[in-house]
Amino acid sequence: MGKMAFKKIMIPTDGSEYTKQAVKKGLMLAKALDAKVSAYYILDQTAFVNVPMDATTLSIYSLLEDEGKEAVDYVKRMGEEMGVEVEMKIDEGSPVKKIIDASKDFDLIVMGTLGRGGLSKLMMGSVAEKVVRHASCPVMVVRAKEDAA
């Protein structure tokens, strides 16, 4: 097989300002390479493991679902403006596991990592780190500018 072609790019997103940087870079790359993009949002079920499923939990859950739709929508809209085909995918489970499992179907993953601070630093930061270590395709990690939020 000749030179490596990046035809399928996965962009995991959580809709935050921090991942928007990665979304932009990923889409620009896809445009340059004439690649297809999958915008991927994983509703983190691990956060709900020890929580009883009551009305409050369910409303948080549906808020997260809305956040997910918004996150992948953002990628799709941005992709349309740039002429890049974007497929939207919302899944639930452990973000690390889901991204790593899906990585075998992609040529490249472009994902954000966070600046310092906050719970989401804990989330996306460690997610990116584990994905880099275990994904079955190359991973490009885009650092957000510290003042993005």
Provide a quick synopsis of the model.
This protein has helices at residues 17-33, 55-82, 95-102, 118-134; strands at residues 8-12, 36-44, 86-93, 108-113, 139-143.
Structural write-up:
With 149 residues, the protein is α/β, with parallel strands linked by helices. The protein is 47% helix and 22% strand. It contains 4 helices and 5 strands, in the order βαβαβαβαβ. The protein has a 5-stranded parallel sheet, sandwiched between helices. Strand 1, helix 1 and strand 2 form a beta-alpha-beta unit. The longest helix is centred in the middle third of the chain and has 28 residues, at 55-82. The chain is globular.
**What's the average pLDDT?**
86
Distance between the termini: 43 Å
User: Count the helices. How many?
Assistant: 4
User: Could you say which overall geometry the principal axes of the C-alpha atoms support?
Assistant: globular
Domains, number: 1
Strand content: 15-25%
What kind of sheet is the major sheet? 5 strands, parallel
Low-confidence stretches: none
**In order across it, which strands form the biggest sheet?**
3-2-1-4-5
Oligomer: single chain
Number of strands: 5
Query: Helical residue percent?
Result: 40-55%
CATH topology: Rossmann fold
